[in-house]
Amino acid sequence: MKTLEFESQLDPHKKLMTVLFWINRKSARTEGCAPFLIKKITTEENVYTPEGRKLLKLSDDIMEDLVRSVDDGRTIELEISMGKEFIKAKLEGNSFSVSTEESKEIEDEIIEKLEMELGKKYPSVCQSFIPRVTPRNPQ
Length: 139
Prior knowledge:
The chain is α+β, with helices and mostly antiparallel strands. Helix content is 36%, strand content 25%. The protein has helices at residues 12-31, 60-71, 104-117, 130-133, and strands at residues 2-5, 36-42, 47-48, 75-82, 85-92, 95-100.
């Protein structure tokens, strides 16, 4: 498990999308076009999992809970699969941790990229990524 302590003035929504995007982007290096599947999200108040065979999308209600949690500095835990890779990540205030099962190099790459991106006023996030994890673009 790799951990990053950072300073960021990003709003909670952008911080969360930046984390998810770079987990996806760096995992794609080894997993290619495999689906990016959010398997579980845990906040201090709720646990979100996909229903049946549906994909877990960040609905308005889920995003509201996540944004509130990030804004309050509370812990969000994510479980994500992409191809053969299984990723666990934790965001709490200005601390982020990630662990991978298959390729430990991905952990280093995610941390390295987030170290750069989370300090920016406008982090790099591909706009086509947001609709893939949310039912519709919330912006």
